[in-house]
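Help! Submission page says 'invalid entity' but I think these are all valid:
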Amino acid sequence: MISISQLNESQRQAVEWRDKSLLVLAGPGSGKTAVLTMRIANIIKNSPDENFRILGLTFTVKAAKEMKDRITVLLGNMDNRVQLRTFHAFCTDLLRQHGSHLNLKPDFSVITDEKDRIAILKELDVDNPEDILSRIDTMFTHGISVEELPKYFAPENQTECYELQTIFNQYIQALSNENQLDFGSMLYFTRLLLETKPRITRQLRTVYKYICVDEFQDTNLAQYIILKLLAPPDNANLFVVADEDQIIFQWNGADPNRLESLKKDYHIDILQLPYNYRCPKEIVEIANRLIKHNSNRIQKKSPGIPFRKDSGKVKLQSYENFDLELSGLAVEIDSVPLQDRDKCLLIARSNKLLTAANTYLKEHGINAEIVSKNQDFSSPILLIMYFCLKLANAPNSRSMLNKLCAAATGMNGLMLSAEDISAKAKVEGSSLLRSFFDAASESEILNPVCNAGITYLCDTIQYQKFVHICLNHFDNANIDNQNNEIFPDYKDDKENWLRITQYIEDTYEGNAGLHVFLQEMDLTPKSKSIGKDCVRLQTVHSAKGTEFDHVFVIGLAEEQFPTYFAIKSGDKSMEEERRNCFVAITRASKSLYLSYAGEYFGWHKRPSRFLKEMGLLND
DNA sequence: GGCGGGACCATTTTT
DNA sequence: TGGTCCCGCC
């Protein structure tokens, strides 16, 4: 890690910034995480006798963890004055503490599965639940209240508006009744709390004297409103890091105007970190040329300056058709020594191209894996254990019992009916979970789980003991099944489980209650482990925030990248598409390989306009 | 047998 | 926006 003396002038200025709000414009590889964490550490070190805290907000769990790790190195055990959370985790913390004012119980659970949200709407007898859900999400991400809704409907559509208002209210009520929140409603309730309980808001403002936001350009309106409540513009210390050239989540509520609002609302000072420490000179140059074509950028922002003196390779290849493009790609990757394969990232704009590339590479003996994150675990056996914990936390949840039965059915030929178990529980006056354990214990593999469950989840709540016994049992049972037929995905799931458990241990110092434990489990994405000599395949969006030695971008043709949609829907979309391309090429720290074909799936395509804009192709 | 017209396909997914 | 294929009609 770098020390203050190694910082460049603008980085040092940002790190030493103290008394006013600041917007730091930080392009790819500009050292923004170092700046953020060093400033936080600096402030804490220079105020040993004070009690205020610093709140650092990020979007991804990964970013929060990365900052936390760095802060721990910088501050040691002084880091308890720093809260580093994702927006959503911060909201859940707040709602657990103060949600009772809004009739939320502190042990609410988190819905991460879209199907569960749809199910709530179905319960409400909604006609077109998928469509309504996306409208509700729009209301959530844009912070649109029921009262404001008519503004967004034409006069002749007010009936439709009224229906949506009714459903929205019912949906919120249902979440609260069932004691569960989805991602959008966390923001909704947090805003409501801060707006209607000024004493709580005031207290938060006193405690969190400094607030830092990473990747601010990704905030949706609801999050920005919450931020403004926490850090009122007239007397706040807000430290915001952003890159307007990396806004690629507009369809999820991010918006270039948000930065404009920030500048206007806060009269904020602006500082740019101009150096790019990641990309070689050639790549910085083409990235600069490309992004210059976006007209709506902050005028003051100068092009990135390459810091590194060594040169990197940029290679552009064209092929007659997609098949040949893939074979060219395979040849190129083949030339990378096996031990460097895990430093290779293949990027495509769409999953369609990515999947095709994946198949092709594997068929031609190149170890490749599509990297995607799952919100949930995937192996049935671990899911059973997990759902048991969730049912212990929400003892009356029929939907959780349904999931649990679905996961357990099939184990040793077991057949379970949630209906029967629920009826039996009623008759015997026992809990759903206990009744489930009674029914499932006839399965050989689940029997030890059931016994442990009765002791440690029903008679007493000692969830760590339950987990410990289950994992031991699974491990022992797994020894006979090297081929993993009985426990598919178990290995990955267990790795994720242990990793997240460790994180929770560190964060809560072993004092996490069951609902907090489950919250962290729910909010942390689960990843698949990837082999050592394996090339990673990612879409542009999922590759954001990563860095690789060798980056390969395929499909640089009109209507692929930029997509047909972007071309059709005009300048604003095209600018976002250009930022997508900017993000893709700036992942590379050594070499960049770009390719396009003249034909995809039987359709003739021209080379991407972005190649011309980068100066790699003539008109 | 020659033709006009329609179908085909078309993105991304932080929590 | 593309190229191509196939159907139906004259």
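Support: the input was valid. A stray whitespace character was the problem, and the output above is from the cleaned input. Residues 57 and 213 of chain A are 5 Å apart (CA to CA).
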